[in-house]
Design brief:
The protein has 280 residues and is α+β, with helices and mostly antiparallel strands. It contains five helices and twelve strands. Strands 7-6-3-4-5-2-8 form a seven-stranded mixed sheet, sandwiched between helices. Strand 3 and strand 4 form a beta hairpin.
């Protein structure tokens, strides 16, 4: 199947609230609206009291720039949870310092600590509001711009502009449909639901261990199952082979040897086919 490659480090947006009770794997939609009137819609994965959203490429760049160039951000949820409001004062300086540090060390990406939002609710074990099971609130409409003043009549006929071409709203890209990706790397790096592949493969391995909890790579290593095979077979067959070359799994003696984990995942059904682990 060819050599293996590692997926670039994503930016993870973590949203947490004590009292949330989100079934594992629940799709959670979140909208961020900034003080300049722009907004970004995300689809994350919920589990317990946490929602995780993976941002990559242009979306990650847009998120960081929006944080740096606005004074407030509001997070709205597709459920009964009320919107959250945050002050972004000082964010521009934080982003600038962080980016300079990353460039100086030759690192691409943004640390997750800058993208964590938390809303404590320690008074109750279970919140009466949850961030899923409903629809996102409608976007506020921008005020209509006044019509430009008409020039005085000169008795001449002015040709009218023709219709403006519109993008086909039904068109899809690799981000929306893995079948439209060009190769394996395109699937892994650009398919919008690939983070679900990584998370479900990790969960499947966790379910199968006999002792303790495996130790997975952290954010700076790209997260679990960030390695993949070169080629086009993921697109041609719909079967992904996600690879994690460095997971520690406890044995009967209590030690934590290193393993390589392989996960076959069916993109057609969005489900794990099989997992296998091989000790180094």
């Amino acid at each position: 199947m060819g050599a293996s490659l590692h997926r670039p480090t994503p930016l993870n947006l973590i949203i947490r609230k004590e009292g949330w009770v989100i079934p594992g794997g629940t799709s959670v939609r979140v909208r961020a609206t900034f003080s300049d009137g722009t907004s970004m819609d995300f689809q994350g994965k919920g589990h317990g009291n946490v929602v995780q959203i993976g941002l990559e490429g242009k979306e990650a760049d847009a998120w960081v720039q929006a944080l740096a160039s606005n004074v407030t951000v509001q997070l709205a949820f597709a459920g009964t949870e009320a919107p959250w409001n945050f002050d972004l004062a000082g964010a521009a300086e934080a982003v600038g310092n962080m980016s300079s540090c990353l460039r100086a060390h030759g690192v691409n990406g943004v640390p997750g600590s800058f993208s964590t939002f938390e809303q404590p609710n320690s008074d109750t074990n279970s919140s009466s509001t949850q961030p899923f099971g409903g629809n996102l609130p409608p976007l506020a409409k921008a005020p209509a711009e006044p019509e430009p003043a008409r020039p005085p009549s000169t008795g001449m006929t002015v040709p009218q502009a023709g219709p403006v071409a519109q993008a086909n709203p039904s068109s899809t890209s690799c981000r929306d449909d893995w079948r439209r990706c060009s190769d394996n790397a395109d699937v892994v790096n650009n398919y919008g639901k690939y983070i679900q592949v990584q998370e479900e493969c990790k969960d499947k391995v966790n379910e199968g261990v006999k002792y303790g909890t495996p130790v997975w790579p952290g954010f700076w290593s790209g997260g679990a199952f960030g390695t993949f095979h070169k080629g086009k077979d993921y697109v041609l067959t719909g079967i992904v082979v996600a690879i994690e070359p460095n997971v520690q799994i406890q044995n009967v003696y209590g030690s934590m040897p290193h393993y390589t984990a392989y996960c076959r995942y069916d993109l057609k059904t969005m489900s794990v086919v099989s997992v296998d682990t091989v000790e180094h």
